[in-house]
Design brief:
Layout (H helix, E strand, L loop, with lengths): L3 H9 L4 H8 L3 H9 L6 H11 L3 H4 L17 H14 L4 H8 L3 H9 L6 H11 L3 H4 L6
Helix pairs in contact: 2-3, 7-8
Length: about 140
């Protein structure tokens, strides 16, 4: 999954791929694959990228053209994410099996996301947010609403 705004932000800051790789503490090859869309950036690295450059995940996902929210929480809590995933699923009257079909994953994988046993992948987070018209930053506890 390619997020064009990774490149845009890097270039706005006059950085090379190796500079961003160093910031994220990953190899240049890994970052290059992320930026070029050959491999999806991990959620952990995406959060670190957004924190470093003070941009929202919703901006990276192109859900908004506003780069940053006024009040953003820079501490990530996986239990906040797991409880909000479950809350949104139930609010929309979806079962875990239905979410599994939507994301093309086994419902047991989704169950682990909701229990906080496994961190959701960036591509599944994107798809979930897109389908339910919800902010990724909200789900991650970075903004209040």
């Amino acid at each position: 999954m390619k997020f064009d705004r990774l490149l845009e932000i890097r270039e706005e800051n006059n950085l090379l791929q190796k500079d961003v790789a160093r910031i994220l503490n990953i190899s240049i090859g890994t970052y290059a694959m992320n930026e070029e869309g050959h491999d999806t950036i991990t959620l952990k690295n995406l959060i670190q990228f957004c924190d470093h450059f003070n941009v929202s995940i919703d901006y990276i996902f192109e859900f908004t053209n506003t780069k940053s929210y006024d009040f953003i929480n820079f501490s990530f809590n996986s239990s906040t994410l797991s409880s909000k995933l479950k809350e949104i699923r139930k609010k929309n009257q979806y079962t875990q099996v239905m979410i599994g079909k939507l994301l093309n994953i086994d419902h047991s994988v989704w169950c682990r996301y909701e229990q906080g046993k496994t961190l959701i992948s960036t591509s599944f987070l994107y798809t979930f947010c897109k389908n339910f018209n919800i902010s990724a930053d909200y789900l991650l506890g970075r903004i209040e609403e």
